Amino acid sequence: MIGMQWIALFFALVTMAATAPTQAQSWPVKSVRFVVPFAPGGLQDVLARLVADKLRPRLGQPVIVENKPGAGGDVGAKLVANSPADGYTVLVASDPGFTTAPALSKDPGFDPVRDFAPITGVMRVSFLLAVHPSVPVNTLPEFVGYAKARPGQLNFASTGVGMPHTLAMELLKQTAGVNLVPVLYKGGAMAAQDLIAGRVQAMFGTWVIFGPYVQSGRLKAIGVSSAARSAKAPDVRSIAEQGYPGFEVWSWTGLLAPAGTPPVAIARLTEETQAVLASPEIKERIFALGLDSVPIISPAAFGEQIKVDVAKWAKLIRDANIKPE
User: Fold this and answer.
1) What domains, with CATH codes, occur in the chain?
2) What is the CA radius of gyration of the chain?
3) For residue 25, what pLDDT is reported?
4) pLDDT > 70: what percent of the chain?
5) DSSP string of 140-176, one letter each residue
């Protein structure tokens, strides 16, 4: 009887060993869902569909994009965090919104680090610090000096406490020790229009929005938020090189799966997505959108970046005395 049990166990182990590689190689066996936590037509939606379209033939399965907007992205993130950890549901996350959720919400319904398995970054974008020509400065040190001589008299356009434009300005305020007054807008387009009209004095914004006005002289760009200069504005010095080393603000979009997703699924998604992003066609499309391709990094390195961003924004929000809602 004991001999028969050992024989049965032996054949079971052989069967498992033989089928394990097959199971690993078979992923995916059905469609993959990309959850975009914002409305259709936005930047994250465009990027998700761009990548999904190129992933379909590489994975051999449909890659479906679903929009689940609400609560600044928290609704979609919570949905993915609570989905089966099988590799078939992927979040198209954006920083800072995704990484600021724990600091800005009393109960976002998910933890950016604990509840997700990082796959890869998709894109990132830096910001220009622009001022209206009526502000008599041409460099960041001049702007800081001008603002310090007029505490509380200069204002800046804000699109909400969790938005990257506003967080970049809050970081500059804390780093440089200046007192600027926020003027709240419902959207970036309206805020930019008021900056161009001179109704506000300063604002962080992307090259896509500010570039034409900087080139025409209707705005002055006095700094860029990336650690190094931007390829789109090589003549604009970074804030870091103008006396504030360590200052760096990016907004990024990346892919994450629910925590516990099998490593084989993460590895396949990472490999195929990074191959898509490395193609000249996709690089050109991303650049045409005013964005930057992300450096190719491992899921582990991407996860470490998320941890750094969560801690960075939490400290900034706490120091700025911004209360969670």
Assistant:
1) 32-124+250-319 (3.40.190.150), 128-242 (3.40.190.10)
2) 23
3) 57
4) 92
5) HHHHHHHHHTSTTT-EEEES-TTSHHHHHHHHHHHHH
